[in-house]
Structure formats: C-alpha cells, structure tokens
Amino acid sequence: MGNRRFRVAAVQMSPVLFDRDATTEKVVRTIERCGREGVRLAVFPETIIPTYPYFAMVEPPLGIAGLVERLRDGAVDVPGSVTEAVGDAARQAEVVVVLGVNERDGGTLYNTQLVFDADGTLLGKRRKIMPTHHERMIWGRGDGSGLVAFDTAVGRLGALICWEHFMPLARYAMMAEREEIHCSHFPGSLLGASMAAQIDAAIRHHAVESGAFVVNATGWLSDAQRMEIASDSGLAELLRGGLGTAVVSPRGEYLAGPLGEGEDLAIAEIDLAVIGQQKGLLDTVGHYARPDILQLRVDRNPREVVEETPSGASK
Questions:
Q1: How many structural domains is the chain composed of?
Q2: Are 165 and 206 in contact (CB under 8 A)?
Q3: 72 or 1: which carries more pLDDT confidence?
Q4: pTM above 0.90, yes or no
Q5: Catalytic site includes residue 26
Q6: Could you tell me which of 155, 235, 242, 157 has the C-alpha nearest to residue 195?
Q7: 208 and 251 in contact (C-beta within 8 Å)?
Q8: Catalytic: which of 34, 128, 135, 164?
Q9: Residue at 16 is within a domain
Q10: Which is the catalytic residue, given 26, 46, 135, 209?
C-alpha cells in the first residue's frame, strides 16, 4: 500500500471573481506550494473557479441574468485548458488534487468536483446531485454515476459537496465505496455562525460514521468582493463567516483548523492506520450494518437525454 502516513491540505482561498484564467493561476500556485511543503493531497473550495454564485442568494432572480452570463463565460470545460493546467501542476508537484468548478456542458452549468491523481491524470468528475435552494436557478443536477470513490496515489478518495452531506443515503453510498479520505467543500463566506455550525456538524459526523479522514475546504471573500457581489451593505453581511476549512480524523477530532477569516491552508499529517482502529469499533458498512433490515439501492448509471436504439433492433 506504500506510505500510509502523509500530509494533506484543505485550501481556504478566494476566487478572482468570474475570472477563470486568473483563478486557475491561483489554484496552480497553491498546488506548487503544496508540493514544496510535502503535501500529498490538496482539496480546494466549492466551485472556486470562477466563483460560487453568491449573487443568486442575495439578489432577486430578475436582476442576476447578466451575472449568470458572466459565470457561464468563466465556467470550465471538462476536459479543457483548466484541466490541462491543473493536471500539469499536480504532476509536477506530485500532489493529488480535488477541485471544485462550475462545469459548462452545452448550455447548462454544473457544480462539479474534479479529481486529479498525483501523476496529473484526471481520474474523473462528479456533479452535485441536488443543488440547494437558490443554486437551482444556476446549476443542473448530477446523476448517480458520481457516487463513486477513486483509487489514487494516497488512497481511496470519496467526495461530496456542501449540503449533499445532509443527504444520508448519498453519504452512505460513499461509505459503501469504502473511502479512506473524504474530500468535501462548501462555499464559505455565507450565513456566518449558522453555516459554520452546520459544517462542523457535517464533517465531524461523517468522519466518525464513515471511519474516514475528512479534508474540507471552504472559500473566502474579502470585504471588497462582498460589496462587489451584493447591492448594499446589509446583503453583504450575509456573505461573511460560514467557514470550516479543516482536516478531521476518523475519531471526529480536528487535526487542523477550522480556519478563521482569510486565505490559508489547514495542513495535517494523517495516518491511514487509524482507519482500521476506528472501524474495529464502528464499521457502518460492515459489522455495524443490518442489511437484513435496511438496505440502500444506488443507480450509478449515467443519464443521457438521447439513447440510441441498436441497429437491427425491433421497433
């Protein structure tokens, strides 16, 4: 299995609002820093490229059409120039990267997590299966094909986005994939102490229940960015706090973070041997399961709008 003890980083950073290329440059510089500091896994915030759509929460729907267009213009094609740049940086730094982006696919945007191995390979992507509240004006819904774990240079990675952590069946689907490290992210700079408390509850509970390490990244907005997004100071105050960038052990203990205001990294050394120790006590997909009473059915088939009928098939 190789080295089971290594450093991981949860990245708290701000985007260059709506600017895909400039934000990608920030991501690449951070990956380079992680490589220099001996970090083997770096997790970035939710839709950091080119920004989380904060505007959809604080402004009325009729007033955001232009901002939605800016978001679409700055969104990421997968594969494309962003995946090439991030993959190259991951390879050179020998860092596994989990990155949140606004993915553009045709005329639709998706809240997407990209997973790069330490050799720069894009192992896969997963789309948020249920956008939350105001997000449903912005993003389409993903399907069950993203409820999988990825085998990487540092171990078996699972991932979920924000309030997907309040979908118990989605979380259990990832536990059943036997993730060793759970990579999560939230937008940050949103709803103050209330959101911070939700993040704390979500990531610590999932760590204990899954018996996995959790590396959670949240975004951060400066005061100038809050005022650029919101039309008045009262609404801008809604875009403050709600931070939870941290690394959590399978015992639910913080190993690094949660971070306060500002851009920074929460870095911790983790030891995957702890997973076996914790699961000896509580293995929710093993000895602590009761499949004779409770079972989860997961459809991991990708959903397409067109399915071709095989040639010669009866009509």
A1: 1
A2: yes
A3: 72
A4: yes
A5: no
A6: 242
A7: yes
A8: 128
A9: yes
A10: 46
